[in-house]
Amino acid sequence: MLYPEIFLNWRGFESSLLIVPLLQVIMFGVGTEMSLRDFLGVIQMPKGVIVGMICQFTIMPLLGFTLAKGFDFPSEIAAGLILVGSSPSGLASNVMSYLAKANLALSVTMTAVATAIAPVLTPFLMSMLGGEFVPVDFFGMMWSIVQIVIIPVSLGLAFNGFMKGKIKWLDQLMPGISMGGIILIIGVITANGRESLMEIGLLLILACFLHNALGYILGFFASKLAGLDQKSCKTIALEVGMQNSGLASGIALQMGKIATVGLAPAVFGPLMNFTGSLLASYWRKKSEENQ
């Protein structure tokens, strides 16, 4: 925000071109932490996964659309909010489920399944809900998700299956690379969208907070109504409220709208990690008190 030129251009090189490669590296790292067993969880706990997927791909997209309309954001800013809501959950929700002493196996399975079906559902939801704000290329967006998520995660899965533990320095290096990559991506998006943020920054933060918080609340009570146990309800709440904002940023870049559509993901990502940490800590404390 203060020195945007540092993040915009490095001796003629557009820094925004780093976003997709960095996301691919991060998604590869996600893949190395997954295995095919994560997908088999669908067989072991089908009700939880089905309820979770319905909540994931209805609550957040509709909330994004409602908030975009309610706040009357400019079209491309509004589309970014819907894009965040239409994205799958990410690895952060698994970490929060672990910290909250929720159903970690369900969390990992939900993330795996949501990631696998995102190439179809995310473009579909954006076409249905975001199409009135910006033109949506269904197949172009599908290919972007395959490039950013499916291919790197698949390579990470293969690495985990054949090489996990054999290259220890890489196993230790990946978390640091991922963290640095996320920080740089947020910096680049913030610098590119600085002017828009100066105009609507506080309102966008409020909208993202409501999107995130209502995702937790509605995800929890929807799964409660479906008859799931307390731990699974907590897990679905975290899975619904926490989105893969990095993927949304990559899609915004591929659309050529990183400075506008990319703003909501850049705000939502750090915010959800803050609120998710608070919620997970609260649930963990309550769980320990009840033991």
Secondary structure blueprint with pairings:
Blueprint: H1 5-8, E1 9-10, E2 13-14, H2 19-32, H3 36-44, H4 46-56, H5 59-71, H6 75-86, H7 91-99, H8 104-130, H9 138-163, H10 168-192, H11 194-225, H12 230-241, H13 245-254, H14 263-289
Antiparallel strand pairs: 1-2
Helix pairs in contact: 2-9, 2-10, 3-4, 3-8, 4-8, 4-11, 4-12, 5-6, 5-11, 6-8, 6-14, 7-8, 7-12, 7-14, 8-9, 8-12, 9-13, 11-12, 11-14, 13-14
Could you describe the 3D structure shown?
Strand 1 and strand 2 form a beta hairpin. The model has no long low-confidence stretch (mean pLDDT 87). The protein has a single domain (18-286), classed as Na+/H+ antiporter like fold. By secondary structure, it is mainly alpha-helical. Helix 2 packs across helix 9 (138-163) and helix 7 packs parallel to helix 14 (263-289). The protein has a two-stranded antiparallel ribbon with strand order 1-2. 79% of the residues lie in helices and 1% in strands.
Instruction: List the uncertain runs.
Output: none
**Please, what is the oligomeric state?**
single chain
CATH topology: Na+/H+ antiporter like fold
**Percent helix among the residues?**
over 70%
Query: How much is the radius of gyration in Å?
Result: 18 Å
The shape is globular
Number of domains in the coordinates?
Answer: 1
